[in-house]
Each structure stands twice: as C-alpha cells, then as structure tokens.
Amino acid sequence: MPPSTVSYHMESWQHVQVHICRILGIQLIFLVGFGFCMSSSFVSCEVGGCTSNVGSTNQSLNIPPYFEKHITKSYFDKYDSLLDSDFLDFISHELFPGSCELLLDNLNLVLRLSVQQRSLIGDGSHRHLSSSFRFNIQSELIAELPIHFCEAIIIEKLPYGIFADPFELQHLLQRGVFMGAAVFGDTNLELPSVHSNRSLVEVHMDVDLNTFSRHKDGLEINIDLPLHIRYPPLEESGYSNIELGAPDLFMRCSIEAKSHNQSCLLMLKDNGVALGNGPVVWRVPSGIKAHARAVSIVTFISAILSTLSIVLTSVYYSSTKLCKNLKQS
C-alpha cells in the first residue's frame, strides 16, 4: 500500500476519533448538568437572592419568628419540606408570643372576615391566582388600640406541581405592588412534579386601619399572584386536577408602648366563612399512560438515528476535506 494511502487512512481515522470524542463529550456534559439539576440542594429564596438551608443566625440568637422579616423563614430553618401538619404545629406553638394576647384579642374583635373570593385568571401553564379578602371593621374600637403601623401577610402553601418564580415576584416588588415577597421550599424551577417538593409564597402588603375604618365596606385586600405549573405525571385521562387550598392570613402591627414600640402578630381567622366561589382547581393537561411505551420507543429510536446521522455526517465531511487537500497537494 502506498505511503500516501496509509497516511490518508490514518488521518481519516484520527478525524473520526476526534468527532466521536466531541459527541461523547457533549452528551457527558449534558448528563452531568441534568444530574446536577436533579440533585440540587433545598434552598429558600427571598426575592432578590437565595440562601441555602444550612442554619439560621437568627435562630442561634433566639429571635422569635414574628420578629423575622419573613415569618415563615423560621419554619424552613427547622424543617426540610412543607407538610401541612408540621406547618400547623409551627403556627400554634412557635409563631405567636404571649406578650400581646390582650391586644390581639381586641384586634380580633375589630377585624372580622366577611368575604373571601379566589379565582384563576388566564389560560395555559402560566396563570394568576386572584384573591380578594374583605373584613368588617368596627371603627369605634380602632381608636382605642395603640396601633402605630400594620401590614397584612398572606401565605400561600402551594401544592405539588405549582410554583412561583422568585424573579417574577422581584419585578412586582420593584413596581411597589407588594411591600415584601419571598418564596421558600423547593425553588428549582426546572424539576417536573414527580421530582419536586412543595413551596410556599409569603407576601406582605401595607394596611392603614385608620383609613379603612372610614369606609363603609371595611378593609379589602386584593392580591394577584403569578403561578406556573410543572410537568405533571402521567394520567389515565390525560388531565390532572390540582386544588389550591385557602391561604393563611396574618396581621403584624407595631404597637405604641410606653418604653418602646412592640411588634405583635395576629392570625386572621375566617370564622367559618367559606370561599365565595368554591375551591380553586387548576386543570392541567398531562401525558396519557397508555401512550408512554410507544412514545419512549419512538424517542429512543429518534435519538439513536440522530446520533448516527451526526457521526456519519462528520465522517463524510472529514473524508471530503481530506480528499480535497490531497488533490490540491
């Protein structure tokens, strides 16, 4: 065999090896990145930044949860995931102090939830949860309370398959829609429902009780929260229904004391008031279980054919380029 032919074949084989290594390298990078996303650490994201759930400085200083900027942060400093039973226990035993009981009882008499309306606005995978809460206010009792400042705190415990985007909430915060907003729990936006945990959204809104007490309709709080769905698991019917439960409502007030202002937290109870339009249900399209095997086979064959076509194209291109170089030489 002539030396030029041997050299030609050796160069062709070297080019094939280089292209195969490139393809394998790209696939390896993709698999490593996907694995990193799947095993991402549990984090809690306040709007404007994320911090890992590795402990709390405030917790070591024994600062009560109601003094925190976001009252639910203390829950995720203690628990790894959102469970309704654990959250209820947190509210009952850790969230409320005993120093404001008399004032809180009086404030509970002043505010009475009368109407609660909730609905989903929009279509598709990106919608807004619109909530409206109306409270009756006894104006004659407002003047007797030494309240300096109040803020309403709305806590939405999102079910599996629904999440809020912290960056989207940041834009609303910059526009002055909310006083504060934070997302806690599973904030990995790329995970499907089967690999994700629940998350929680805490929103703060300014409330002036003295101003609202002069309105006959009382105090009304309106909030539009942008939400998104994750890729749902397979269903027999091709649809899954996700129900959003009622939020937890709190009022945190700064009280004018003799020596210093004191912060008190009140949970606004619904007193048996039901949702005006029933529970909110998000009907989400999903894959059909009966089609799963066929889709997997077609996807696998398509991936193999695509890989082979890339390899063959690379080999053909390298051979053509070498032939042209040999002819020119």
Automatic annotation (TrEMBL):
Pathway: Glycolipid biosynthesis; glycosylphosphatidylinositol-anchor biosynthesis
Entry coiled-coil feature ranges: none
Principal location listed in the UniProt entry: endoplasmic reticulum
Cellular compartment(s): Endoplasmic reticulum membrane
Residues spanning the signal sequence: none
Keywords: Endoplasmic reticulum, Glycoprotein, GPI-anchor biosynthesis, Membrane, Transmembrane, Transmembrane helix
GO CC term (a single one): endoplasmic reticulum membrane
Record-level GO BP terms: GPI anchor biosynthetic process
Membrane topology qualifier: Single-pass membrane protein
Pfam families: PIG-X (PF08320)
Transmembrane segments: 20-43, 294-317
Family, as annotated: Belongs to the PIGX family.
Protein name: Phosphatidylinositol-glycan biosynthesis class X protein
Organism expressing this protein natively: Vitis vinifera
